[in-house]
Amino acid sequence: MPQTLKYIPWLVMTFFASFLFVITARYLSFESDINFLLVKQDIVFDTVWRPTFYLHVISGMLVILIGPFQLLKKFRNKYLNLHRKLGKIYAYGILLVAAPTGFIMAFYAEGGYWSTVSFIIMSVLWFYTTLMAVIKVKNKEIIEHKKWMYRSYALSFAAVTLRLLVPLMSLPVISKYLGSTPDERDYVIIVATAWLSWIINLVFVELLIAKTFGAKNSLQKS
């Protein structure tokens, strides 16, 4: 594969991460009637939910934008010190802010019980995979660190996947099979995307890890 083609998946990922960053930045106006907040009018000024939401948004914006550059080999090799500094912002942004606030917000999720369960599991996995990445790099286990970083960013990228799945599943050709009424279909889409957004990413990244690091192990043994 030509070298330039190898960067296409990274460019696509970075494009969607940047796009999410831009559309999420609208929340920093702190207006109460934009995008997602339109369906949260009953709790938009709640003293727990509101600060939790904005902490989650700000930390998530940093995490989603930093991630692609942390995974780019040339960037790591050329700017190792910057890679380490950004890595700390990424990791502790998740461990101290994004994952804990995601856990809290799960209890306010659209879709009720099953959406809440999904986002709780995702928040715990997000915290765990990131923590493992930190532990592995501190132990100088660089290959294992990379694997756990892949998993961590797969969960970070669930925010993007969610926003791609919702309009896809809302297409009439698909949504007509998801319920007999509009309310039923909306409920199924909300709950299904809550689960699929991170499960799809984790399945994909495990296949990527097996292919990437399995191939490296084979080369080392041969």
Task: Describe the 3D structure.
The protein is mainly alpha-helical. It has one domain. The chain contains ten helices and no strands. It has helices at residues 3-6, 8-24, 49-70, 73-78, 80-106, 113-138, 142-156, 158-169, 172-175, 182-221. Helix 3 (49-70) packs antiparallel against helix 5 (80-106), helix 6 (113-138) packs parallel to helix 10 (182-221) and helix 8 (158-169) packs across helix 10 (182-221). The chain starts with a helix and ends with a helix. The model is unreliable at 218-222 (pLDDT under 50).
List keywords for this structure.
222 residues, mainly alpha, 10 helices, 0% strand, disordered C terminus
Brief sketch in words of this structure:
This protein is mainly α and 222 residues long. The chain has helices at 3-6, 8-24, 49-70, 73-78, 80-106, 113-138, 142-156, 158-169, 172-175, 182-221.
